[in-house]
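Input structure tokens:
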């Protein structure tokens, strides 16, 4: 083991050469150089992996042994200044860290970043533009490899001015600004898949309770519903499309109107709406799925998996959105040429749908 001597000549580790009870002092470049018997310049070349440097393999191994034995940690900020970038990726979010399921974006981005040797710097701004600007400025000071800019629901967004100073990818949002790469859920495919769950169980008169709030999800999920019906040769009937506020009260309030439509199945804009619909249908004496089949959207597990019966739904791919954003930022995945890259929304089938009984 590489060691130093104290005043009495007793060997001791450089990392432990402080007085007992005091915080150990970091090992310096000079200490590594002395232990390896080389100059500090040579240690610096080894640490910074300068391939062009002419250093004998035996010398390189001696330096690496000294680094390992002494527990030397390179100065990350100094390396950043040398290389022009760091091993950090920034993630700026408006609220996803505090929402019940969209925090998976952070999880996916973190796992993918770590896989490629990067760590995340995360700023949750709660939509505060001043805080957002400060967070991006701080990340630029740290010379992050790039920034993921994310919103808690899929929507168009305005780019903060400082974001343009960095390589960036939009996650769960998009911009019409040329060159703004983005990854978003495939809402049309998700709406199509939700409707197909009901179609494959024999349902033909399928209602759709859409949201009242304008959003890409509202348009995309309706378009997917229409496409699934068309593929089965079923004529779209706009009388089977209702609108309600996309929460539990909205779904509950839609129950009576739904019953007037003679539908055997219903697909809801989201799981919260489906949860309210469950209550409304039960109050009308109906059983799910025996009297009417129900499908949701989001796979919000605190809701969908715990309803009785558990809700069949379509999952928003938050984890994969975060992971795909990192891959795109690092150049490992090519963006779409003129539109956001769409991420597949998988189905999660549970017990709220059963085969339609013969008439």
């Amino acid at each position: 083991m590489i060691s130093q001597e104290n005043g009495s000549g007793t060997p001791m580790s450089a990392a432990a050469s402080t007085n007992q009870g005091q915080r150990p002092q970091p090992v310096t470049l000079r200490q590594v150089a002395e232990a390896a018997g080389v100059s500090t310049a040579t240690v610096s070349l080894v640490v910074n992996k300068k391939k062009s440097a002419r250093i004998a393999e035996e010398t390189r191994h001696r330096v690496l042994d000294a680094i390992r034995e002494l527990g030397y940690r390179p100065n990350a900020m100094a390396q950043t200044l040398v290389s022009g970038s760091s091993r950090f990726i920034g993630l700026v979010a408006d609220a996803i860290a505090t929402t019940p399921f969209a925090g998976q974006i952070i999880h996916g981005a973190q796992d993918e970043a770590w896989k490629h040797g990067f760590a995340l710097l995360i700023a949750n701004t709660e939509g505060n533009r001043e805080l957002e600007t400060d967070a991006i400025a701080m990340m630029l000071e740290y010379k992050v490899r790039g920034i993921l800019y994310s919103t808690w629901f899929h929507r168009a967004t305005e780019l903060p001015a400082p974001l343009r100073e960095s390589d960036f990818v939009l996650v769960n949002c998009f911009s019409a600004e040329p060159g703004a790469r983005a990854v978003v859920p495939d809402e049309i495919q998700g709406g199509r898949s939700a409707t197909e769950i009901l179609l494959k169980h024999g349902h033909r008169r399928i209602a759709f309770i859409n949201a009242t709030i304008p959003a890409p999800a509202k348009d995309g999920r309706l378009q997917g519903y229409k496409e699934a019906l068309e593929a089965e040769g079923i004529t779209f009937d706009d009388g089977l499309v209702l609108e309600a506020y996309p929460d539990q009260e909205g779904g509950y309030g839609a129950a009576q109107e739904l019953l007037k439509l003679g539908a055997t199945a219903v697909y809801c804009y989201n799981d919260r709406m489906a949860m309210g619909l469950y209550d409304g249908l039960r109050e009308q004496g109906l059983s799910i799925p025996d009297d009417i089949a129900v499908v949701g959207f989001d796979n919000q597990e605190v809701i969908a998996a715990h309803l009785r019966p558990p809700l069949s739904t379509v999952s928003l791919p938050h984890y994969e959105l975060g992971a795909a954003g990192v891959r795109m930022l690092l150049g490992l995945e090519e963006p779409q040429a003129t539109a956001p890259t769409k991420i597949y929304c998988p189905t999660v089938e549970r017990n709220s749908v059963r085969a339609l009984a013969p008439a």
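The radius of gyration is 28 Å. Residues 1-19 have pLDDT under 50 and may be disordered.
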